[in-house]
Amino acid sequence: MSLDLLKEKLQGVFKTLRGYGKLSESSVADAVREVRLALLAADVNYQVAKEFCDEVKKKSLGAEVLASIRPGEQFIKIVHDELLAIFGSETKELTPNRPLRILLCGLNGAGKTTTAGKLAAWFKKQKQHVVLVAGDLARPAAIQQLEILGKQAGITVLTFPGEKSPARVAELAREEIARLRVEVAIFDAAGRLDVEDSLLAELEAVGKTWEPQETLLVADAATGQTAVKVAQAFHSRVPLTGLILSKFDADTRGGASLSFQRVTKVPIRFLGTGEGIDAIELFQPERLVGRLLGMGDIVGLVEKAQTEFDAVSTEKMAAKLAKNSFDLQDFLDQIKMIRKLGPLQNLLGMIPGMPKMPDSVDGEKSLRRVEAMIRSMTLEERSRPAVLNARRRQRIARGSGTSVTDLNELLHRFEEMKKMMQRLNRGGSPDKMLRNLMSRR
Ligand SMILES: Nc1nc2c(ncn2[C@@H]2O[C@H](COP(=O)(O)OP(=O)(O)OP(=O)(O)O)[C@@H](O)[C@H]2O)c(=O)[nH]1
Ligand SMILES: [Mg+2]
């Protein structure tokens, strides 16, 4: 996946930083240098990487660093915020105006036609009346390629056989769109060999007749800094309103995505994540940055858990899981261990996909209720919950000051958890088991 390399490197830097009790000027400088190398390795534009790092350094050493927060965390937060500053902190939606005319442009083979099909399918899913316009008259079989995509997705493709000028096609297509009451029309333009290409003039002409509200450049994420130059060149001829980074699934560097916005000030709108017609996603900066930095902080949780978990009982638990004899008593022991790890809310926040607790007080309260319920059970009941009939359940609820509904819920959750742990426990070490548990999404 794109940016995987950067992710790996950044997380390496953070891991080292976490070891420091205090961030000195030199440790900040070291970390910042590592971040810059990571950015450059991911093919982020040199100037962009430099500016980014200068900013991070300034903020890390500046007065706003809070003494009460752990230095490593503070640094991660600063990097996080700076990344968002580059990507833009929110998803920028396409204009709601209808009929919406989109023009897709880009270099040869960037993925325009595929993306046209994906976008059309994306709009169709939103119940929009969408058509594709075959505007690539340069490449043989380009029209046919679009028609195949259209057929696959059940989308009308407007073609004008015999027509030689794409600008004229745009004109004719607009008449059709009005007639058919189309809401969204996507114009698939011919690829340009390079930015000096005379075909750019042709694209300008298309822009004049098509008058798109959205002109989106499709750029191959793997082409890195070249893609940034391309974006600049296109932008100067046909004003771009957005970028679509294709082949985001393929490239591990993906640094271009960081450079684009900084250099062109044009927002990334979509990511192409595969060859299939559904392989497109809205570009969500928060999500991408979260993914990049591992804000779900799996590593941190595992480390923390590793030092504070009672190693002996973890081993015991793994053995029980393997034998499928994990029972409510163990569940209770585990809750106690979890509580030792610190504020519940922080802990849960580190597990990706974990539902947010309303607040730590509530979290604590419900843990205490669970404890009370299990404590009200006999040892036999704890090891064989199956014996819990209605009468016993009533007794336990009374004894723990809870309700039968609470108890039923607990038992249900326990069974679910047991099932999940069983699935995750592929005979590995407790450590591996924990990692498996934490890395599930
Ligand atoms: N893995 C992957 N492949 C993609 C993606 N988008 C497009 N492709 C592939 O890239 C190749 C070129 O795609 P096209 O859509 O034909 O590119 P184009 O820009 O229309 O090409 P020209 O019209 O010749 O300029 C095809 O093999 C696509 O399957 C993507 O997001 N991920
Ligand atoms: Mg094409």
Features of the shown structure:
441 residues; alpha/beta; Four Helix Bundle (Hemerythrin (Met), subunit A); 20 helices; 8 strands
3D architecture notes:
The chain is α/β, with parallel strands linked by helices and 441 residues long. It has three domains: 84 residues, SRP54, nucleotide-binding domain (Four Helix Bundle (Hemerythrin (Met), subunit A)); 184 residues, Rossmann fold (3-Layer(aba) Sandwich); 142 residues, 434 Repressor (Amino-terminal Domain), CATH 1.10.260. Helix 1 packs antiparallel against helix 4, helix 5 runs parallel beside helix 6 and helix 7 runs parallel beside helix 8. The protein contains 20 helices and eight strands. Guanosine-5'-triphosphate binds next to helix 5. Magnesium ion (MG) binds next to helix 5.
The 3D shape can be described as: flat
Number of helices: 20
Radius of gyration: 28 Å
Low-pLDDT residue spans: 63-68, 295-310, 344-360, 437-441
- Which sequence of strands runs across the widest sheet? 3-2-4-1-5-6-7-8
Give the H and E element order.
HHHHEHEHEHEHEHEHEEHHHHHHHHHH
Q: How many domains, as an integer?
A: 3
Query: What's the CATH H-level superfamily name of the largest domain?
Result: P-loop containing nucleotide triphosphate hydrolases
Average pLDDT for all residues? 80
Per CATH, the architecture of the largest domain is 3-Layer(aba) Sandwich
- Main beta-sheet strand count, sense and barrel state: 8 strands, mixed
Q: Based on DSSP secondary structure assignment, what is the total number of beta strands?
A: 8
Gap between N and C termini: 16 Å
Q: Might you state the CATH topology name of the largest domain?
A: Rossmann fold
Share of helix among residues? 55-70%
Strand content: 5-15%
Query: Any ligands, ions or cofactors bound here, and which?
Result: guanosine-5'-triphosphate, magnesium ion
- Highest CATH level, the class of the largest domain: Alpha Beta
What structural category arises from helix and sheet content? alpha/beta
